[in-house]
Amino acid sequence: MRNLEKYKGIIPAFYACYDREGRVSPRGVEELTEYFINRGVKGVYVNGSSGECIYLSVEERKLILEWVMEKARGKLTVIAHVACNNTEDSRELARHAQDLGVDAIAAIPPIYFRLPEDAIARYWNDISQAAPETDFIIYNIPQLAGVALTLPLLRKMRENPRVVGIKNSSMPVQDIQMFLKEGGKDCVVFNGPDEQFISGRVMGAQGGIGGTYGVMPELFLEMDACISGGELTKAREIQYAVNAVIYKMCEAKGNLYGVIKEILRRNEGLSLGSVRPPLMPATQEDEAVISEAAGMIREARKTFLDG
What we know:
Helices cover about 50% and strands about 10% of the residues. By secondary structure, it is an alpha/beta fold. The chain has an eight-stranded parallel β-sheet with strand order 1-8-7-6-5-4-3-2. Strand 2 (about 45), helix 2 (about 60-70) and strand 3 form a beta-alpha-beta unit. Helix 8 (about 195-205) packs parallel to helix 9. The radius of gyration is 18 Å and the shape is globular.
């Protein structure tokens, strides 16, 4: 019997960790993994959008996953995003992830060329076949991938017994309802847009995977607990506070993940580096935004967790 409980909960997207020279950093990966273990999250989603996957080589992505697994094995659910813009590299990452013993692999559709749904299904199934003993999660993020998961495509993918879930980052909350209905009881749907976490959960998402969870995991854990406990008013208040932080971070000129890593340095003492070009690092002009956002997170913790 497949264990889907390990996917239900708060799963932060893992950030790419670099040293001062911009190389992937084993120390940074180790520190970030331990940070997530200590915060009590359900798992981590490695080498996805927040992990700057399209700017990393296949070998770098392998190394990052290896370092995560050294620390996380048996302590966190690990989902490895393995999609590249060609099938063979994706299959290589899938094989490697299965060899390491991850809980699941995940993939966006191929980007740039607009492919028909049969080609997307073939791409996903080819990847899944390279890791035949590992669960597969569809990553639906149409605003970046340029193509959306449809019900006919999901129906076709559910013929693959390894497909157990959908990381849904489309903005319409209704999509969660439709994917839950089509996927059935043995399929997990994750809420993707962090700004509408409680909306997705109330609509039926059993968990969430998000790029801003990592900078304030306690707040997402508390929101999740409030929803499970029927404290919707408090959940909404936390969501508003979380959204204010997200909106503030997005005011920076630098890339969001560069801003997040700087906040983690200040609030948590983590040294994760910056972001990889062509992404823009946080600039001196972003100092006020970073300082304010870091303070907002600390204040929200006091308001909702320490009281």
